[in-house]
Amino acid sequence: MRKIFYEDINIIDFEATVVSCEYDEERKLYKVLLDATAFFPEEGGQSADIGTLDLQEVIDVQIKEDLVYHYVKNALAVGTMVSGHVDWNQRFDFMQQHSGEHILSGLIHNKYGYNNVGFHLSTNEVTMDFNGVLDLDQAREIELAANKIIYANLPIVVSYPSADELSNMEYRSKIEIDGQVRIVTIPEVDVCACCAPHVATTGQIGIIKIVGLQSYKGGVRLNILCGERALQDYSEKFDSVSTIAQDMSTKQDQIVAGYNRLKEEYQSLKTKINDLQSICLSMSLSSLPSPEESKNAVLFTDITDNVAIRNAVNQLMESYSGYCAVFAGSGSYRFVIGSKNLDCNELAQKLRTDLGAKCGGNKVMIQGSVESSEEDIEKIFKEGL
Ligand SMILES: [Zn+2]
Questions:
Q1: What is d(CA 121, CA 129) in angstroms, rounded to the nearest whole number?
Q2: Residue 341 has pLDDT above 90, yes or no
Q3: How many angstroms does the Cα of residue 30 sit away from the middle of ligand 1?
Q4: Model pTM?
Q5: What is the CATH number of the domain that holds 147?
């Protein structure tokens, strides 16, 4: 079969004869073989081209034993001529990403000796894995060098060296391949065995941006964006930054400083609110029956600050001889209970058995949560504990 994508990557409209069309039970699709195709299949970590065959959508394109199969919903008659159309936007986008990947892989290989050991290119993500570690500064340096190669607008050359020539060549992805090896060269930058479509010159990549770097299997995984994807990302980030800057009434390059100021203000307000909650809770303790009237003190409140609750329990324990409890919330409560004289573990057991509370602690103080009514909780403390 003719592979039109190897003859001219710019050809996206073609005519071809249907050689076979079989129903694939597993995929519930027809698997069509043509005598020629411009569809580049899923290969080497890269998703397949999309497009149409006689106006019906090509759902997937796979290669097996050097034959390219197109997956479609409706059968195509064997022996008839069909018109194929490859979506140029996705093809060109993939070419930009893939050529960008070669530049980065070549530069990293040349400088650090690492190999690209994993590559994934789909419509929403490009990742590349290296068998060595890079830090952010090193990645930035490589990124700048890669973009300078874009500015230099170098040719990206495809060649098919003979077996003899290959044996004397230095190139990446050197694995034993039966048949013709396709070599993609960017002069002075990279030589790599690769079957995928590439842009004609590095300038067509537009821009390369590394947007993610993480440790991966003892090496590093990079997320990258090339060409229009990088522009799109910049536009989205610009929108976010300008919205935040407007809200903060600050300049865009001042938003980190502005954010740090807000964070400090937030922390200081949080501290003040907690202090006020402590004071409020402490004042509400006077509404409880006096220690002479009741051994136990049980307070319900909607104040939820942990420190305030703990302070209130400690304060109650100074005057009440029984259990001193604060339940925070409504219907669903978090609680802290303390006692100078009684065993809180015993109470914990009762709360668990009678009300299904989840709690733990020690003899002097317990804490936990319970879903129950105020009345049922109060009953526990009145039942002669
Ligand atoms: Zn490649």
A1: 12
A2: yes
A3: 29
A4: 0.79
A5: 3.30.980.10
For ligand 1, a single-atom ion, which residues have Cβ within 5 Å?
Answer: 194, 196
Tens digit of each residue's pLDDT (9 = 90 or more) over 208-235: 999 999 999 999 999 999 999 999 999 9
C-alpha torsion angle, residues 134, 216, 92, 32 (rounded to 10)? 150
Record the tokens describing residue 156, joined without a space: 């990206």
Tell whether 95 and 221 lie within a shared domain: yes
The CATH number assigned to the domain holding 24 equals: 2.40.30.130
* Whether residue 178 sits in one domain with residue 128: yes
Q: In angstroms, what is the span from residue 44 Cα to ligand 1's centroid? A: 7
Instruction: Report the alpha-carbon distance of residue 382 to residue 293 in Å, rounded.
Output: 12
239 is a domain residue: no
pLDDT tens digits, residue range 163-193?
899 989 999 987 766 678 999 999 999 999 9
Domain that holds residue 159: 91-234
Calculate how far, in angstroms, residue 235's C-alpha sits from the geometric centre of ligand 1.
28
CB-count exposure of residue 52 (10 Å: 0-12, 13-18, 19+): middle
105 and 31 within one domain: no
| Count of domains for the chain | 3
Residue 7 lies in a domain: yes
